Fold these 2 entries.
Entry 1:
Amino acid sequence: MHSAEPILCGYYCKLSCSDQRASARREEIEMRNLSSFLRSSAHSLSSLNEVLSANYHVLPLIFLTVLIFLYLYFCDEPLSIRNLCLAFVAAFIAVKKFRLFLPRRRRDSVQWFIGDVESPIPASGGRINDKQGVELYPNGDSYEGEFHLGKCNGSGVYDFFKQGRYEGDWVDGKHDGYGIERWAQGIRYQGHYRRGLQNGFGVCQFYKGGNYAGEWVAGKIHGRGVQSCSDGSYYVGEFKFGVKHGLGFYQFRNGDRYAGEYFNGMMNGFGIYHFANGHCYEGSWHEGTQQGFGTYTFANGKTTSGEWDCGTLKKPLSPSHPHVHRSVQCGRKAAESAILLPRVEEQVNKAVAAANRAATAARVAAIKAARY
């Protein structure tokens, strides 16, 4: 029986850790997809104008080069490398200097940026004054609300054509203050913004189910918060740039739970892992597996202690061994600190309430602007 216990211990450890890695990968992919989606409209619209501008510059350059080449040919000029280079340089200067063949269109045609890129002043149809109005954009987007110095300022509603909608506060053409953002994929954010990005406290509903409620910095989950997943698992603790990092508590979908330290989305450092079958491991972790010194306690009360390597007991040691004892104590301390982390529910609730008020004010401003 005693010889089978380490084998069972290693089996449960590896099985649970593989589930934990799979959950971590799913969450990380979902977080990255969310972040890239929220920034996608800035990149897609700016790249559209870049492609158009590039085409307008290349075509006349080729055309003029061909014309000069034909001129040299019919004038019986020798087709030397020197003449060809001069022809190309002349064509380039003509296009650059005199803007030949370029249509007369504004370089600052309407774009919409959610990121930290300057959003240009709208130049399309609509009716506005220095206080309120309606602005229609070539890509199908529209804004109804308050203006100041030609930019969205105050309260207003922005409709992303067939994509989503933002209702809330604006400063210099960007989301700034509180508001609500909804997208066709099912993503919804309620909370605080700064310079066009989620910043402060807020709640985000993910498009595949689940949500996050907590702190944000520059459009990314950062700080303390609660992440609930569609499979029923949840994490309460600290994040760094979108991944679990620091102290935290994780409840797995299979009933397992972990409290302790995280690094880059994985259990790393010291902590305690309680298995759904009643087993428990206390000690050191590295990249999601037991690594270092620790103690494994079975449901019947028996223990196995020693040095671990990749989730398997490498060297049995007494529970009173200094290294084992220290790791167990560090694991218990980290678990206690993770469980006692200050919660942010109150700050999140206040931010959501402020976002709802700002969204209501934005809808009122939109109605007034439409009647203007």
Entry 2:
Amino acid sequence: MLTMEPKFGKMLLVGAIFNCLDPVLTIVSGLSVRDPFLTPFDKEDLADAAKSQFSRDHSDHLALVRAYEGWKVAERDFAGYDYCWKNFLSAQSMKAIDSLRKEFYSLKASAYTSHTHIYI
């Protein structure tokens, strides 16, 4: 059994209900690990510009989703580390987000086969 904060569990349930589980998985996973957006002391302006390309003047949550999606594409091309380096992202955090997404997604499959009741 995977433990998580109740608010994250609710987010996952609502994401499944409204058929938008994929980005919610990324957001919940991203909020559960160290912030993947790096801000080196001597390159704050460049790091802020890199993050703003993902947010496009919207929320940090959408920036996280876009950064993760780009990282996944780069990973398929064996360029995940380069992607992180160029975009001031923590490769370790991105891998942790990916791992947590898989764990959280497995809860969906087990929820359909479980005989326990879940109350919100």
